[in-house]
Amino acid sequence: MNRTVFILNGPNLNMLGRREPHIYGHTTLEQIRHCSERLAQELDLICDFRQTNHEGVMVDWIQEAFEQGAAVIINPAGLSFHSIPVLDALKLHDAPLIELHLSNIHARDELHRHSIMSGVANSVICGMGADGYPLAIRAIDVLLRRQAANN
User: Rounded to whole angstroms, how far apart are CA atoms 122 and 87?
Assistant: First the structure.
């Protein structure tokens, strides 16, 4: 069974800790990466943690995960609300897929309230800040174990 998980982060998340900390917190993406990789190792997952500011790069990475049969945790950031190419790439995916947001997008302004990605995800985690990442990794582990038990 493939125990690889791609953790894909979208535009501006490289600025975490400095960008709107009242919304996104003070934790940096590097701190999140470190904690994510450590937890993944504890759960016997192979973690591939990435960030891009470019829509096409995100599409390439989702397709790469699909080709490898890897699970995906995606924080699409601003791509959540308008990126049909990212959505179409996610529709290819048949391995576990979790959408993740640091803020509670449902409590935000109208522009940031509805993610078009949510309909193709197994689960959506939002509003937990940086703590959402370990929750998502644990959820991927559960989904992968369920998948293995059913095969």
Answer: 14
Give Cβ neighbours of residue 18 (< 8 Å, ≥ 6 apart). Answer: none
User: Going from the N-terminus, what domains does the chain have, and what CATH number goes with each?
Assistant: 4-150 (3.40.50.9100)
* 133 Cβ contact partners less than 8 Å away, ≥ 6 residues apart: 7, 32, 35, 36, 73, 100
- The angle that helices 55-68 and 84-92 make with each other, rounded to 10 degrees, is 0
pLDDT at position 104 is 80
**Can you give the three-state secondary structure of 59-87, one letter per residue?**
HHHHHHHHHHCCEEEEECHHHHHCCHHHH
Q: What is the pLDDT of residues 21-61, one digit of tens each?
A: 877 789 999 999 999 999 999 999 999 999 999 999 999 99
The answer to whether 133 is a known catalytic residue is: no
Residue for token digits 């599409």?
Answer: 59
Which residue out of 93, 101, 112, 133 is catalytically annotated? 101
Residue 83 identity = S
Which residue in 22, 24, 82, 133 is the catalytic one? 24
Given a cut of 90, whether residue 103 has pLDDT beyond it is: no
